[in-house]
């Protein structure tokens, strides 16, 4: 796979999980929109033909809300690699919403990403799906050792015993770090997805704080704190 030669100037954030409905599009759309408040961002939807992120972007565009956010699609790994190469010249961040299956495109996302987010809910089915993905992540690490993949807990209920037990089990079984920020179950997440909005444009302050905290933590992992002056002048928004 000719991805390592790709000139990557953008920070690339993949969102991957093999279990459908885990929250990939929720995280991809909200984090992309949050980052685009300060930076040029492209969100590439690879989960076709479903295209949740692309549909969300189309509603957003109709409502004149694109700002610094650009939406693209890629139906296979070659198209994805070409688009990442193209957009990495101009974008500060590229987010990739992955498909719920192990395929060349999932491997390409893992290898190209500076940081891969793995949404996970406290359910056995999601944890089984993650352990399948874990083998693929291990393989990707052989291709590009620094591939950084981290779990993001979604629909998290921190008071519950099962949430703690799942978190401990994942920690024991998989050598995958977990981000501290997590998303709890909030109707706001489905309300905004359907309207082409992100939670920063909605009235649920808890959801907004969760996404802002997650975005700041992601940016810190990438050495790109939103206020940090790490981007070259040509890519910074004037
Ligand atoms: N934390 C949350 N609280 C409430 N609803 C949520 C939360 N996370 C996701 N959802 C809802 O669950 C559904 C599935 O989430 P999402 O589309 O983000 O998952 P996905 O992994 O992209 O799924 P798919 O396989 O369909 O692409 C959506 O309707 C979304 O609005
Ligand atoms: Mg999706």
CATH superfamily, by name, is P-loop containing nucleotide triphosphate hydrolases
Number of helices: 8
CATH architecture: 3-Layer(aba) Sandwich
- The stretches of 5 or more residues where confidence is low (pLDDT under 50) are 1-8, 226-238
Q: How much strand content do the residues show?
A: 5-15%
Ends distance: 36 Å
CATH T-level topology: Rossmann fold
Strand order of the largest sheet: 3-2-4-1-5-6
Oligomer: single chain
Number of strands: 6
Which structural class do you get from the secondary structure elements? alpha/beta
What is the gist of this entry?
The protein is α/β, with parallel strands linked by helices. It has helices at residues 24-35, 52-62, 77-87, 104-112, 124-143, 161-173, 187-195, 205-221; strands at 11-15, 41-45, 69-73, 93-97, 115-120, 149-153.
Description:
By secondary structure, the protein is α/β, with parallel strands linked by helices. The protein has one domain (9-216): P-loop containing nucleotide triphosphate hydrolases (Rossmann fold, 3-Layer(aba) Sandwich), CATH 3.40.50. It has eight helices and six strands. Strands 3-2-4-1-5-6 form a six-stranded parallel β-sheet, with helices on both faces. The protein is globular, with a radius of gyration of 17 Å. It starts with 10 loop residues before the first strand and ends in a 17-residue tail after the last helix. Mean pLDDT is 87; it is low at 1-8 and 226-238. It binds adenosine-5'-triphosphate and magnesium ion. Magnesium ion is lined by residues 24-25, 47, 52.
